[in-house]
Amino acid sequence: MRGPLALVATVLIGGLLAFGLMRYTSATPSAERTVTAAGVASTPAALAASSATTVDPDLPRMKVYKSPSCGCCGDWIDHLREHGFDVEVVDTNDMATVKVALGVPPEMGSCHTAEIGDLVVEGHVPADDIKAFLADPGEARGLAVPGMPVGSPGMEVEGMAADPYDVVAFSADGSTSVFRSYR
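-> structure tokens emitted (183 positions)
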């Protein structure tokens, strides 16, 4: 958990990354660095996170794309690992290209994007919602928590009340529906 100043920095940086770069970055891919739960980790924090939990063999592997400077993304990845997901992390400075390539609707944007096979997870979606979605995705292409609501996984702030937020299912045709609400 972080204090209020860290939250402000995270929201400002994450917001710029998620929304500003989504509109203004070029389509040229940037250099990427991969960190896997199998132990190929380039920082002590990533190494600790990769060895701290047990991977559930019944869950599919997830690839998470994030900015190398985003702290809340790392906290969300820790949340996923704590819930048994095997997570490969790809740091990139070109999140806009990733979001477009994976079909994330602009209004669903957040600071990180994950792919699980043909499905997409955008933003701070709780691990239990991802598990429920994987069991029955229906016609949906993915799940999203638009923006960066306080209290969602990876956005917890000590001393601050959680924001109400929705986990939204989205389809390739652009249709959306509320998958789960947190109030």
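The chain has one domain: 4-182.
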